[in-house]
Write a structure and sequence with these properties.
Strand content: 15-25%
Number of helices: 16
Distance between the termini: 49 Å
Structural class: alpha/beta
Radius of gyration: 20 Å
Number of strands: 15
Largest sheet: 8 strands, mixed
Helix content: 40-55%
Length: 395
């Protein structure tokens, strides 16, 4: 079915959840980078908070004084349907997505509206595929989850690396991420929600696996293996139980360019073994505590939603992801790097993803798709121009 014509809608893009910590950073980035003539708006449940944010944006750019403000609430599906019907692209930072996210996904899938979020919750993404991928394919909507630090650097980093490798041969890539960043209350809340639901997460993954077609005549794997020592990156690789390798594998399954036999492994790169062991034990303890409701409530209370690192702390933050690749006789190391990953760069990735969907000449895709599949080289070019580095490591 052809994509619905959304050109006559009131807005090119709407940012929902604009007054949260990451939402406000995304709003500020959009205010500074939307192209001339872009019709955009801020949306959320509190008119007073939206007005305060608009006033703050207007201090930097007086044109923002007239920015439209739209009232919408995840507990009112009708308001979300109206929101989706009025825009070509809808961007949301409202999490935890398991609790607040589905009505907006459903509204966008039905309306043929492109949807972009920051979600790193695998259970939510799997459930949205099972429930709404078919409707989005029918309407032409592109549902693009994980468009921040989860999982843009890995998805586009592997996509960039594959483009430099020979075609038609087995591909092996290991990703090693390093960062000194911290996180916000909203991020902690989302992580604890996801960690507290291992059985539901596994069930959602099985349901998706049963519903999703596998690539014909090709093999794609993203195994969770033991720790490794990487001589290429001079780090210990601690396996990360995050969404990112799943996203990379879905891009690989959708794109023949990843070769007939593709494997990706995902690690935290740690310089010293004791730190690697301590990090693994700490993550295990956090997951265990998340299973106990009183402990989970205590942990989530350490940072309130809307709280986050200071501008000074964010200015000192950085991330680097190195990809060690092998394809036939070719060996290659690439790197994606940038500043504060959780907030400054996540706001940049999210905003540029939305702008790419709204204004770039992109492949004809629909349904639940990854950033590599939906936007690929176009988004990579946008992020490079915005200061995120993609390159080959010379050693």
């Amino acid at each position: 079915m052809p994509r619905q014509d959304t050109s006559g809608r009131a807005y090119d893009l709407v940012l929902y959840g604009a007054t949260g910590f990451t939402g406000a950073l995304t709003a500020a980035y959009l205010a500074a980078h939307v192209p001339m003539g872009c019709r955009w708006a801020l949306a959320g449940r509190s008119a007073a908070k939206l007005e305060r944010l608009r006033d703050l944006l207007a201090k930097s750019d007086p044109a923002c004084a007239d920015l439209p403000l739209l009232r919408a609430d995840s507990s009112d599906p009708g308001s979300l349907r109206d929101l989706a019907a009025d825009t070509r692209v809808l961007v949301t930072t409202v999490g935890p997505y398991l609790i607040h996210g589905e009505p907006l996904v459903a509204a966008c899938a039905a309306a043929g509206t492109d949807y972009v979020d920051l979600c790193g919750e695998s259970e939510f993404i799997d459930r949205m595929y099972v429930r709404h991928d078919a409707a989005a394919r029918a309407s032409g909507a592109r549902l693009v989850h994980a468009s921040g630090f989860d999982s843009v650097p890995y998805d586009l980093g592997v996509h960039y690396t594959v483009g430099l490798l020979p075609e038609g041969v087995p591909v092996r890539i290991d990703g090693f991420v390093r960062t000194n960043a911290t996180f916000s209350g909203g991020t902690l809340n989302s992580a604890l929600t996801a960690a507290s639901r291992p059985v539901a997460m596994a069930r959602a993954a099985r349901e998706r696996q049963q519903a999703e077609a596998q690539p014909a005549g090709r093999t794609v794997r993203a195994p969770f293996g033991p720790p490794v020592r990487s001589s290429e990156t001079r780090t210990w690789g601690v396996p990360l139980p995050t969404l990112d390798p799943q996203i990379v594998a879905r891009s690989a399954a959708a794109l023949d360019r990843y070769g007939p036999d593709f494997r990706y492994r995902h690690y935290a790169g740690v310089r010293r073994l004791p730190i690697a062991v301590g990090g693994a034990l700490g993550a295990g303890a956090l997951c265990a505590l998340a299973q106990v409701p009183p402990a989970r409530r205590w942990l989530s209370g350490r940072l309130e939603p809307g709280d986050g690192p200071s501008p000074e702390r964010r200015a000192r933050s950085w991330f680097k992801v190195r990809f060690v690749a092998a394809a036939g006789d070719t060996r290659l190391i690439t790197e994606v790097s940038g500043g504060d990953p959780g907030y400054e760069e996540t706001a940049k990735m999210l905003a540029q993803s939305a702008l790419s969907l709204a204004f770039d000449d992109l492949p004809e895709t629909a349904g639940q798709v990854t950033t590599a599949v939906a936007m690929g080289d176009a988004l990579t070019a946008r992020l490079q121009e915005a200061g995120i580095k993609f390159g080959v490591v010379q050693e």
